[in-house]
Amino acid sequence: MQRTSQYLSYGVALLLLQLWLSCFLAKAYSEMLQDADNDEQDRALVNFVWQRRGETWAKLEKFEEVVQRQFEELRFSLVAHSNRPTAASAATPTSRPPPSL
After folding, report:
1. Alpha-carbon span 62 to 58, nearest angstrom
2. d(Cα 62, Cα 90) in Å, to the nearest integer?
3. Is the pLDDT of residue 85 over 80?
4. Longest dimension (CA), the chain
């Protein structure tokens, strides 16, 4: 009876060890799957951010081109306006007539 009890206790200890090992391996595998999923999500997020960054830069370059074009048009307009004689300067003669006596 004692020997049977001893074998039974060894068997229970072995089964507990097997259970602990199975739980440990299952947890390690679960964490490995979770890490792989997190890495995939991180890569997707980084790709999303880089894609948006590229789109933002493209839109910014277009905006800069529009602003530059508007600036050039304004500058040419101001230059043309400053070179055009005004009505007040056209009405004043360049040489004064002699004073009347």
Report:
1. 6
2. 43
3. no
4. 155
